[in-house]
Write a sequence for this structure.
């Protein structure tokens, strides 16, 4: 009787070990292949590159819908951290040649507006509306947060406007630096190196002496 019980317990342990043991090598390969195929067909592709600028090392990225990130004054790791972890990041400066060329022209004073598609789909409709309104600000001019809010028909939304501008994924291209506080101070700026960069950009455009 004791022998049977020991055999039964041993059999149960073996079955449990079998259930939780490593799958066969062929099964693992098939599973990995399925995941790789899904990733290749489904995961979004983000192409990125970097360039030198007067503001330091500048990173650019674009997805299928257009430019989705411009960043500077931050480490590379922080730039990558902003993307969906499911995305496939591809270092492909050639795919961003047009954006880089226009940025070079801007920094040299040869361009004041950008002609580039951009992707704001990760933002709310209100945030997108704020950024599209900011695009209307002429180079060399500044608007207040209140003026941007009023232009949207939301005159009491100065604070949410400022918060939306802080979410701008493509600073410089969408000129959130052209929005300042009602008292004439710079307000805030989420771009790399903060207000120093904002002041530099406004001086480049002739808004500040």
């Amino acid at each position: 009787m004791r022998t049977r019980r020991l055999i039964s317990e041993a059999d149960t342990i073996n079955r449990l070990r079998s259930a939780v043991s490593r799958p066969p090598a062929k099964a693992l390969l098939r599973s990995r292949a399925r995941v790789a195929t899904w990733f290749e067909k489904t995961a979004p592709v983000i192409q990125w590159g970097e360039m030198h600028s007067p503001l330091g090392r500048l990173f650019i990225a674009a997805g299928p819908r257009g430019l989705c990130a411009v960043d500077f004054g931050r480490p590379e790791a922080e730039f990558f951290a902003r993307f969906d972890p499911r995305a496939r990041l591809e270092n492909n400066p050639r795919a961003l040649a047009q954006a880089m060329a226009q940025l070079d022209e801007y920094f040299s004073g040869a361009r004041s507006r950008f002609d580039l598609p951009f992707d704001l789909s990760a933002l709310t409709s209100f945030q997108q509306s704020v950024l599209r309104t900011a695009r209307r600000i002429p180079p060399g001019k500044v608007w207040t947060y209140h003026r941007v809010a009023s232009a949207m028909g939301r005159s009491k939304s100065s604070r949410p406007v400022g918060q939306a501008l802080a979410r701008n994924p493509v600073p410089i291209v969408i000129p959130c630096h052209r929005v300042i506080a009602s008292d004439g101070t710079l307000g805030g700026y989420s771009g790399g190196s903060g207000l120093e960069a904002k002041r530099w950009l406004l001086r480049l455009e002739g808004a500040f002496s």
Summary: The chain has eight helices and six strands. The helical segments are 2-20, 25-42, 76-81, 97-108, 125-134, 145-151, 158-165, 194-205. Strands lie at 45-53, 56-63, 66-72, 88-91, 143-144, 179-180. The mean pLDDT is 88.
